[in-house]
Amino acid sequence: MPEPIVPPRKVSELVVERLTQRVERGEWPVGTRIPPEPELVAELGVGRNTVREAVRALEHAGILEPRRGDGTYVRAADGLDAALNRRARTTDAFHVLEVRGILERGAARAAAERDDPGVLARLDAALAAQVAARAGDEDAFQAADVAFHAEVVRAAGNPLLADLYDGLDHALVRSFPSGEQRRHHRAVPGHEEVVAAIRAHDPAAAEAAVAATIATVRAHLVEAARGAPDGPDVPGGSGARGARPTGGADESEAGA
After folding, report:
1. d(CA 105, CA 98)
2. Which of 41, 117, 195, 252 has the most CB atoms at less than 10 Å from its CB?
3. How many domains is the chain built from?
4. Record's superkingdom (predicted)?
5. Residues 56 and 107 in one domain
């Protein structure tokens, strides 16, 4: 039976594929600005319109984000990340926090059941960076803190779990209000303890250490919501995307 003729792919589709690969490989991490249009044109050897079409397609997919007067930034690591971000934007921060907490507690337990020296080395490095950043500015601390928690999840050895967590993690970071209300407490407990528990292959202790960070981060989110200028008197003002925690057991242990 004759094979159907497949039409050649558009150049812009190939450019989309190339740019997507750079994001997925981490060459352009989430939150960074991609090279300007003239640089991409020279690098890829295609026309300006082709580059613009490809960038626009990735913007529609939620992977890139244009910022007026400041270039184009990476918004999501891949299509899954973008989909989770879109969904998370339609709910409140406490729900995102709750799901993150469920994933991270399970990941810490699974990581403690593994025996991988490489995992422990990466956790030690991420923890050291987080501890060092506690004396730095807010952006540096937040980046180091996010990286540490992501490393804990990756320590479980499940790539799909890591991808799910990363998408929710990015959504949670954007859900915190700006200014003083956004500041994390630099002495949130549990970080050193979770690494020690994973090293000791103690799943229960690892999960309990994560829960300690969960409770504290949720308390800061409640405080930020109450401090929002137009927020209600109950936890979950506009500073937390209108979140209203229901007080359930899981929600009191939401994410870290």
Report:
1. 11
2. 195
3. 2
4. Bacteria
5. no
Identify the DSSP state of 129.
H
CB 203 within 8 A of CB 112: yes
pLDDT per residue over 12-21, tens digit each? 899 999 999 9
Please name which of 180, 194, 245 lies closest in space to residue 219, comparing C-alpha atoms. 245
Q: Which domain covers residue 39, as residue numbers?
A: 11-75
Which residues contact residue 124 at a Cβ distance below 8 angstroms, ignoring those fewer than 6 apart?
195
Residue 49 CA to residue 37 CA, distance in Å, equals 10
> How confident is residue 100, by pLDDT bands cut at 50, 70 and 90?
confident
User: To 10 degrees, what angle do helices 11-24 and 37-44 make?
Assistant: 110
The CATH number linked to 176 is: 1.20.120.530
pLDDT in tens, 107-117: 999 999 998 88
The pLDDT score that the predictor gives to residue 171 is 62
- Rg value, the chain, Cα: 21
Residue, of 252 and 202, whose pLDDT is higher: 202
221 and 106 housed in the same domain: yes
Bridge partners of residue 226, in order along the sequence: none
Residues 88 and 212 in one domain: yes
- One-letter amino acid for residue 4 of the chain: P
Same domain, 91 and 155: yes
Query: Are 33 and 152 members of one domain?
Result: no
- Rounded CA separation 63/181 (Å): 28
Identify whether residues 99 and 63 lie together within a single domain.
no
